Amino acid sequence: MNQPLGTRSLDSFRDPIRRASVDVSIVVDEGAGTSAHVGEVIESSTAQLVAESVRLNGAPAFGQFVRVETEPLPILGVVHNTRTQSLEANRRPSAYGKSEEELRLEQPQIFELLRTHFDVFVLGYLDGTHPVLAYPPQPARIHSFVHVCSTEQTRALTATEQLLRSLLEAPGLPTDELLLATLSHALDAREPALRQAYVLRTGKELSRLLRDDYDRLSALVGRLKDRMNSKDSQ
Amino acid sequence: MSVGTDRPSQSGSEPEPESESESQSRSSNGDGTGLSGLRDPRGRVGVITKGSLVEGLEMKLDAQRNVEDMKAGKFVVIEGDKNDFFSMVTDMRLDATNGEILLHPPDRSDELLRQILAGTGTYNIVSLRPMLMMPKSGVAGFDDGPRPVKAIPSHFSVVQDAEEEDVSRIFGSEGEGDGRYFSIGSPLDMDTPVCIDMVRFAERSNGIFGKTGTGKSFLTRLALCGLIHYDRAVNLIFDMHNEYGWKAMKETSGSNSSFVKGLKQLFGERVAIFSLDPKSTRTRGIQPDHEVYISYDQIAVEDIAPLQDELKLNPTAVESAYLVYAIYKDSWLRTLLSLEGPDVEEFANEIGAHPGSLVALHRKLKRLENFPFMVKKGQAETGDCVDRIMEHLDAGINVVLEFGQQTSMLCYLLVANIIARRIHEMYVKKSEKFYATQKPEDQPRQLMITIEEAHKFLNPSAAKQTIFGTIAREMRKYYVSLLVVDQRPSGIDDEVLSQLGTRITALLNDEKDIAAVLTGVSGTEGLRSVLASLDSKQQALALGHAVPMPVVVRTREYGEEFYRFLGAADEDPDVRSARVQKERVALFGE
Amino acid sequence: MPGSRRSNAPTTVARPGSSYSLLDLTAVKGQVDAMVAAQVDAPALFEERLVQAVDLLVEWGQPDRWQQLQQMIQKARVSWLFADFCGPFCEGIDAPPRPQHLSVAATDGSQIFPDRHEISPCYLLNIGYVLLHYGSGERALISSRPQLYWQDQDLYQEWGGRRTGVSRDVVGFRRSLLELTELAELAAASQAEGHPTVALTDGTLIMWSLEGRAPDFRDDCLGQIRGAFDLLAERRIPVAGYISRPGGSDLVNALRVAMCPMTVTQCDQCPGLQSAGEDLPVVRPCDPLEGISDGVLLRRLLQPGQRSAVFGSTSQILSDYGAHHIHFFYVHVGKEVARVEIPAYVAEDQQLLDRVHACVIDQAAKGQGYPVSLAEAHERAVVRGADREAFYRYLEDMFVRHDIRARVSLKGLRKRSAGI
Predict the structure, then answer these.
(1) CB-based contact (8 Å) between B121 and chain A?
(2) Model's pTM, two decimal places?
(3) Which residues on chain A are in Cβ contact (under 8 Å) with C132?
(4) Which CATH architecture has domain B172-214+446-452+480-555?
């Protein structure tokens, strides 16, 4: 406040954490490079972590595999829940009856008061380029950045049966939906020619894991088949 | 990280496509040790999951193999740690891990779910019966060859399709062993030949069985060809239906029935056709080498005894015959038959026989006079036919005795018994002489007598009385053995059955018949289902002395190729006549 | 309740069989009944008076009458606050359209008062900043900045030669001042980046309670106030103070003068006083206007969206505001009538005035009756109990870490964990 009056910049008023004035878009990084992150860890435990997405409504897709750059080794997980809500518990959004474009023009403050958070179920960690599907020795550190996994990494994660087992055994997950979504991403990461073989192999692994619940297996397989068919027709 | 061949394999999981190098590593060593080297991984069938030595083993079929390929009798190899186990498929079963799957089976159109369930939720279990085990190369005992199964492979041992080397290693191959192995066909779904050890085949009596119309004659012909071609035994064949000598009709579907060559056509001068009905023989297009006549004096009481059932004779009838014999010796029959009407009774009283039974005997034996080949003594132009037969046999010429139109059972039984008894007598003498002198030129030739409708000769009651029962029991003591051909093996005496060294069986349905065939051979549990599932044509199960392990074969084609193999294809006439000349000289001198 | 009808004497005797309560509601029932009865009749009476008042307003607000009232007021010798008229005031003025591109800067403040029972006598001011851009889709700026006051000159004041701990009032002043100066800086920064900006603050721009304060303090404050207004005036950024549910009656007081029969209005000489005797209530000629506030009055006059004429404030402290004499107008924002205070440079600049008018209407509409920018600024500034606790915890932690001897009073301890 010792500056002469009227010489302070607008930046000096801005909240340093949210100083970015340009919306950061989500980029699926093809390398393990330093492309833009999509979220920042705000809660962390061995099995779960919660991240705030950089851009409002910009969380990674449900079932998307993500990589948290943290010490000592990057942690791998899958997005299983995304929610957008107001920052403060006592303030709730209300209906305006306007399109988002209109709201940006006439009620710009609401976008500052909402946050998108996404929950990540921890699957394992990255040892070099090789994913290890076991809980990491230490949870991710708060404020670590979350990136979307590359196609390579997605393929590697979905190559083993352990993924299915981890998802089926974890409590509190929307398991069947998550299985379907992760498998869909797994298919996207593979050449069209290899998809059929992958579906078959995964289907057999599921059949073993779900041996006592045939009903569930056949429902899942049916949905998976529909998903594949709609992909093929695209 | 790419998903490739470095992923550890899990049981039942689909293997990734192989690289080139893997498929080329299938070794095939020329010396036949390729078995215990690397097997072609494409031949993998499944893994062993359960089982015991006594009850057999169970295998879980790999998901990508179709259960329809697993046929009863198929030959597979279980790769244990130290041994390979050569086994036969005996049963197949479908199963599911969860009853729910069977309650709500996937739609036929739901291909994905069916494929996913295959091997995980639904699976196929195949029962295997190990027949032989052989140590792998590098393990002690490798060179001893296959031996009976004393151990079982461990859990999850891999099961493979059998390969050519396996078959030839176990069964031998033609060309090996000095003319010892004769191919009778090939295993199911394979093309390699399965061979019978002809030496061992000739050592014992053997049986050829199968329902009517399943091709017993073909099997018999094959066996006989083998014996003749490799000269392992000289054969005397009682050819009741005129099938073996010259041409025979081939039962083919459709209208064009063709003919197959008989033994004489194939082996020429090494086969002689004796005919009881020369006219019939000539009608069929060949001149018999000998016409057979039997004089009454040649018939002994022992020859009548086996006819009891056929003639419906009273037991006392035979005793009466003996009483006649006691007085008249060789001419007893002639004497008896020369009597007429009431003389017989009188005669009975004379000799102290029961009149009623003698009358019955007389009446029944009168039938013999109807046979055209029965002659009075001395009327046979060619001399004693039995002596003639014996001469041929001595010379190594096989004899086919055709019955022409004399196809009655009485005739067959009578003639077969008479001739066989006499031949056997001669062989006994010869053998004893050989045992005394030990000179190689005195050693009698191994004789194999082929009889059909064997249950008539060898049923439990007749077996004790006929010469055939005796021959069967004596085994090779006197160098005579039987080749029994029958469609009702359950009618044959158990003791005789147990003496049959090798059995070659076509399809049998009757439980009793199946049990009979399997009598007296060890390690046949599980073969019942195999026997009952044989094709009605061109498939047979061979088991016993001449094969190391029971094996199902697709019988060898009896056609041009076979003829060529025997060297009896239609060959250059000059070559043929030269050969014939040579044989004639060898047999009869200049 | 048998036998207990004593309407005027409250009893506190516990009745056998009932639970003991500290307030005897049954005894007060009769009094409540009387009150309710009176209230039922009140509206109709009030309505009559209100209509009267509106007529009065319209009558005296005419273009040819208002100056007369102005003169009467100037001559009057009374102690109330009057509105100072600048022109006719009989009609409402429609809102002009809001410029398509407009930015609204707003600040609000909150504090943690110094608490001698706590570990440290320092105090904290928290200012919330809001900058909303309309018509461009640009991201809003919403942030806050705390300021800690711990130095001696902040914590103690000289008053009559004695040094005492700074009072809550003073902290309140400092806060209001900080709100204004920071608002000016924020608006200036926004304008500098090319956004046409309006600055809004919550509450009055007139710091009337500075009167009677220590001269040094007073001068310092006023200096800062003038500095802020100077800056804004120089950059031509309009600033306005928004008062919701205004209780003021500047205008109504002026109408009292209109109603007064005296030539020169002098309340201690009121005719009503003279006619009153003992036991008789005083009835003044201007009593009909009793209980009517400016807001209530103008609610009748103004349509939603309209504003009243601009009036000048006659608050004493304004003499020290220099050129920035504070004016005000009332505006119907739909849910209520609010009072908007503006400095002279806005009142005299039709363009700026219109801009403020349009902005306030728009802001209130967006905020469901209260300007959204002020609401957000308030939310951002407010320091809740939990935050306060966390602040003192943090202080303790730091003190302990650095081995500073500190004492928390027993009262402070007790506040933290009140046992039974």
Answers:
(1) yes
(2) 0.66
(3) 108-109
(4) 3-Layer(aba) Sandwich (3.40)
